[in-house]
Design a protein that fits this description.
Layout: E1 9-14, E2 19-29, E3 32-43, E4 46-56, E5 62-71, E6 74-82, E7 88-90, E8 93-94, E9 103-106, H1 114-119, E10 128-129, E11 132-135, E12 142-145, E13 148-155, E14 158-165, E15 170-177, E16 182-185, E17 189-191
Parallel strand pairs: 9-11
Antiparallel strand pairs: 1-2, 1-17, 2-3, 3-4, 4-5, 5-6, 6-7, 7-8, 10-13, 11-12, 13-14, 14-15, 15-16, 16-17
Length: 193
């Protein structure tokens, strides 16, 4: 499955559980890729804004993530690093509970689902486990989640996956464009540009 280069700019509208927007800027580099964006939403009676920077190596493995969240309670910041021995550090402290994860997934973002789509060589119909470091939107708490992606179709216009997270008891079909960015994440977001 060959994906196109990421566009320099992409935007989404949050739907369903929250209202708001996400904006992504991409920067391809010889040493990998940088995803830089922000997402702002109102979920129930809670409003939040999360700015993020995700640095990826040439194989789409997460190297480092920095995020800042703003809520009515104030501002929080988190720094997450994947160390050379595949351990993870959050704000400089080792987190053995995150070992085995390759990706970081933000609750606030549709962008982070693109990372395993680029990283893994999927075979149609064969599920792939993709445990991830999960970052909460409102307070940037970090924990591990279990995810599974199964490629259901691939063509020149994009790809579709059956997605499951047993951590949150969620299952849905994710639709991506030819560059591997989410077009439709049911109940979460739709692509605008």
């Amino acid at each position: 499955m060959k994906l196109n280069d990421l566009p320099r700019l992409a935007t989404w509208q949050h739907i369903g559980v929250r209202t708001g927007y996400e904006v992504l800027f991409t920067d391809a580099r010889a040493g990998g890729c940088r995803l830089r964006g922000s997402t702002t939403a109102l979920e129930g009676h809670t409003a939040w804004s999360v700015g993020y920077r995700i640095d990826l190596d040439p194989r789409w493995h997460t190297r480092q993530v920095v995020a800042v969240a703003s809520t009515i309670a104030g501002e929080r910041r988190v720094s997450i690093r994947r160390l050379p021995d595949d351990q993870w550090a959050v704000d400089g402290l080792l987190r053995p509970d995150l070992n085995g994860c390759v990706d970081v997934d933000f609750e606030s973002s549709s962008v982070t689902n693109t990372v395993p789509v680029h990283r893994v060589e999927f075979v149609p119909g064969e599920p792939v486990e993709a445990p991830a470091v999960f970052v909460r939107a409102d307070d940037l708490r970090v924990h591990r989640i279990q995810q599974r992606y199964t490629l259901t179709s691939a063509g020149p216009d994009g790809v579709r996956f059956d997605y499951e997270s047993t951590t949150f008891d969620v299952a849905c079909e994710l639709t991506f464009d030819a560059a591997g960015l989410i077009l439709d994440y049911p109940g979460i977001a739709v692509r605008h540009r």
